[in-house]
UniProtKB/TrEMBL annotation:
Keyword Signal: yes
Stretches assigned to the DUF5689 domain: 423-627
Transmembrane segments: none
Name of the protein this chain belongs to: DUF5689 domain-containing protein
Keywords for this protein: Signal
Native species: Bacteroides reticulotermitis
Residues in the signal sequence: 1-21
UniProt-listed Pfam families: BACON, DUF5689
Length: 881
């Protein structure tokens, strides 16, 4: 799909042109002004014997095209009825069939122009006995709310502990609940995709023998624009792949429902597919191409009725990709390709073939008559410059790779030999056109400039290229190109590029005062030259904002304390001063180049791209060379994981991993602990053993971790107090394990953080109530249940309590907590509880060892959520005494 999209965007021009040769047809001047484009989705529809779509399938397919098309049903398959059999442009085609059909039919979508068929796609329609799905694998990301946003590889609360989980920039979160979004929505946890491209991989799902017809379902949400409450799901930015070995991946398509249209805005996605060959185990990969916007949950793989054929056996085969034509003129063009799944040492030659092409389809071309041109350098990707083309003629071309035994070809593409009609405009001129409002460009433009940021340094929002006018030394001569579907690490600092901006497609504006261009694709960027000199401009702090997007240097910059530039996975701002004025040096959370890299306090020159945040100028170093004046050679502790730890009253042990830079022969040591803790150091690993705390107060101490000839870092250690069994006013400790570890989320109930370190129970989400049932209390007789509670800001709520499996509530069975301004937004919440108004006690009688307690924000205690906008409450500090 993406290949076709690039195909369309690049070859925006005349498709068929007039030439005098007899084998070239003529078309009207205004016809076929774009390259042919055809997409059909889905490509397989499955119906049961009742004539209705099978579970997870649908009764329609979508056509996206820019020509007239016809839908041709295979002969002798008159049982298939289409709502439309021809048309022009995009359309949705409804498919209907009668009952009791056990057969397979194909529908061919042909797109044509005056000289014949240009492209075709096939839709397969299957009808017959359907199977009842049998679950092979299911994952709800755990029932107990995850604390601390652990990386997927570190999370231990998975439902399925047989498979393995890994990821890149993916973590488990207990926010953005999907409760009520679709029938199997589990809440509270989900997988959050941070800096794009972010990936979540499920490995080694055992597949029962000979099961090739499978169905994959999952829930997902795309927070396209939080402020505008836009959750329109973009399937092109959330990809799903399958693999038999975790190395070679094949993409899989999916459909979605309309859950993004209403709260909680989670969609339910389904993919029906058929494996070409049986596999013993399956790997699933989810890939997000937009940073911090996507989540996924409730992943289920089951047997199904089949669908699109997936050839995992070929997923790892060598594959050649033909790249889009570039630098097209009336007589020349730059063509090229790339190869995957093969070592270049096994390749003998790479290059392209091109041939004059006017009629028929690219599949009918006689490539033996094509001109073959080898690339001068055996590399991937490669380019070849072709010349001697005929003005206004259309050509087909394809990339190739030759090995000792075979030649592998990429898919054919086409272009027209014609000079671009885009208007050249300077970067400064384009910036002058920008306002605070996003506006489409009024004509086709072409800009040229030097990449002045360092894509390899990663200190930018994913998909950003900083480009400046060649040799510019004055402000207003740079901008940012932004497309988060482009991996900009394919470009380099110092490259000169040409960018084509298409009228009514590309948009320009000053986003928070930063000049930005959006709406282009990689096909619109052409590299003209390499290794151009980029000289940073010396500026003062007061000039930073005016030189936005340009490389600048501030001399005599001072930082007071040494440290590390940034911690892994986190944004970091460092405070500098120059000339008596403070300024911020910013490191994006994805800038792994600077992770745990120590620096020394001192004064020197610092370089980077000038940026703006909240109206103030900032500096974003491009690479480690930009901050070399502050290099540290001293032994330095750069990270301790975890940063602190709280032990239960019974004590226990905990390992701490210490990361050190420039360690040499220097060793770690610990100090500052009493006999309540014992610490053992083995290399860069520290094991702390905490004794039992029999007192009524928590024991807290600070362990100082020191490095010989280096620095030291503090780690806070705490042993929780033993419960006194009495009134718990003023106690906000976690309710675990009394409630949550063995409890059940009936609906819209999950754990969250209050004040960053207190675990709480949140009931209700959006306009739905919540309910939670504890595990067995394992006590008997009469007890009191006390806790703190608050209602959602500006709302009212009623919290009801009941006892199950023996026992009852004596007296009041419900409360109406006071609304709290801190109970709003997302966790962690900042809430100040009052002992006088927010502390509640219930009297429980006749309890047994198996008694449980249900807490709900609807007094019906039903099995499903009740719609009620006044049904959200937060509770913590639970104690039974």
């Amino acid at each position: 799909m993406m290949r076709d999209l690039k195909f369309l965007k690049l070859f925006y021009g005349l498709m068929l042109v007039m030439v005098s040769a007899a084998f070239v047809s003529c078309v009207d001047d205004n016809d076929d002004t774009e390259a042919p484009f055809l997409e059909v989705s889905p490509t397989t529809l499955i119906f049961g014997l009742n004539g209705q779509p099978a579970d997870g399938s649908q009764a329609s397919f979508d056509i996206k095209a820019n020509r007239s098309w016809k839908a041709i049903i295979e002969e002798d398959k008159s049982w298939v009825t289409l709502s439309k059999t021809e048309g022009e442009g995009s359309a949705t085609i409804q498919v209907s069939i009668p009952e009791n059909i056990n057969d397979v039919a194909t529908v061919v979508i042909q797109m044509s122009n005056k000289v014949g068929v240009l492209m075709s796609k096939t839709v397969t329609i299957k009808s017959g006995e359907t199977v009842t799905p049998t679950v092979i694998y299911s994952e709800t990301v755990g029932s107990a709310a995850a604390a601390g946003n652990p990386a997927v590889a570190d999370y231990t609360g998975w439902d399925d502990k047989v498979v393995t989980y890994s990821g890149t920039n993916a973590s488990v979160r207990a926010s953005q609940s999907n409760a009520g979004g679709y029938p199997t929505a589990s809440g509270p946890n989900n997988i959050f995709f941070a800096g794009a491209p972010a990936e979540f991989v499920i490995s080694k799902i055992a597949i029962p023998e000979q099961n090739t017809n499978l169905k994959l379902t999952f829930g997902s949400i795309y927070v396209k624009d939080y402020d505008a409450k836009d959750y329109t799901f973009d399937m092109s930015k959330f990809e799903v792949y399958l693999s038999a070995d975790g190395t070679a991946w094949a993409p899989v398509t999916y459909t979605k429902d309309n859950g993004d249209a209403e709260k909680p805005n989670w969609i339910f996605a389904t993919s029906n597919f058929t494996l070409k060959q049986p596999v013993s185990s399956l790997y699933i990969k989810f890939r997000a191409l937009d940073s911090s916007k996507f989540r996924v949950d409730d992943i289920t793989l089951s047997t199904g009725n089949g669908g699109d054929e997936i050839d995992l056996g070929a997923a790892g085969d060598p594959k050649v990709t033909t790249t889009d034509a570039a630098a097209i003129t009336e007589s020349t063009a730059t063509l090229g390709g790339s190869v995957a799944n093969i070592e270049l040492s096994d390749v003998t030659e790479v290059g392209i073939q091109h041939i004059l092409f006017s009629t028929g389809t690219v599949t009918s071309i006689d490539w033996t008559k094509a001109t073959k041109t080898a690339a001068t350098v055996k590399e991937s990707p490669w380019t070849v410059a072709v010349s001697g083309l005929t003005k206004d003629a259309q050509y087909a071309f394809r990339a190739y790779t030759t090995t000792a035994t075979t030649t592998i070809y990429g898919e054919p593409k086409t272009f027209v030999a014609m000079t671009s009609t885009a208007t050249q405009i300077s970067i400064a001129g384009l910036v002058e056109k920008m306002t605070a409002t996003s506006t489409a460009v009024d004509k086709d433009y072409e800009i040229r400039g030097i990449i002045c940021g360092d894509p390899a340094g990663l200190n930018y929002s994913y998909g950003t290229l900083f480009v400046m006018t060649k040799g510019a030394t004055t402000a207003g001569n740079a901008l940012s190109l932004y497309n988060n579907q482009i991996d900009v690490t394919q470009y380099k600092l110092g490259q000169e590029i040409k960018v084509t901006l298409q009228k009514d497609v590309v948009k320009i504006y000053k986003r928070y005062d930063v000049p930005q261009v959006e709406g282009f694709s990689a096909a619109n960027i052409e590299v003209l030259s390499e290794s151009n000199t980029v000289t940073p401009i010396k500026v003062t702090v007061s000039q930073l904002a005016s030189f936005v997007c340009m490389p600048v240097t501030i001399d005599n910059a001072t930082i007071a304390e040494s440290g590390v530039w940034k911690d892994p996975g986190a944004l970091k701002n460092q405070s500098f001063t120059a000339g008596g004025t403070a300024f911020t040096v910013n490191f994006n959370k994805s800038a792994t180049t600077f992770d745990n890299k120590p620096f020394a306090a001192g004064t020197g020159s610092i370089t980077g791209i000038a940026s703006i945040f909240s109206g103030a100028g900032q500096l974003m170093p491009r690479n480690l060379n930009d901050v070399s004046a502050f290099n540290s050679t001293s032994p330095t502790i750069t990270n301790i994981s975890p940063e602190n730890h709280t032990f239960p009253a019974a004590g226990g042990s905990q390992e701490f991993d210490v990361t050190v830079a420039n360690q040499g022969s220097n060793t770690l040591s610990v100090s500052g602990l009493s006999n309540a803790f014992t610490a053992n150091v083995s290399g860069n690993k520290i094991t702390v053993i905490a004794k039992e705390n029999t007192g009524s107060s928590a024991i807290s101490e600070t362990m100082k971790v020191s490095l010989t000839n280096g620095n030291s870092e503090d780690v806070k250690l705490t042993i929780s107090a033993k419960s006194t069994g009495g009134d718990t006013k003023g106690t906000f400790t976690s309710m675990t394990p009394f409630l949550f570890s063995e409890g059940v989320n009936n609906y819209s109930a999950y754990g969250q953080l209050v004040n960053t370190d207190i675990y709480c129970l949140k009931l209700g989400v959006g306009a739905s109530s919540g309910s939670f049932t504890t595990g067995a209390l394992k006590v008997s007789g009469s007890k009191k249940l006390s806790f703190y509670a608050a209602t959602w800001k500006g709302k009212t709520s009623k919290v009801s309590i009941k006892v199950n499996n023996g026992g009852s509530v004596s007296g009041n069975t419900s409360i109406e907590p006071v609304a709290n301004d801190g109970a709003t937004g997302n966790a962690p919440y900042t809430i100040v509880f009052s002992d006088n108004t927010d502390y509640y006690t219930f009297n429980l009688t006749g309890l047994t060892e198996s008694s449980t307690i249900t807490i709900a924000t609807d007094d019906s205690f039903g099995t499903t959520a009740v719609t009620n906008s006044n049904a959200r409450a937060i509770m913590c500090g639970f104690q039974l005494y």
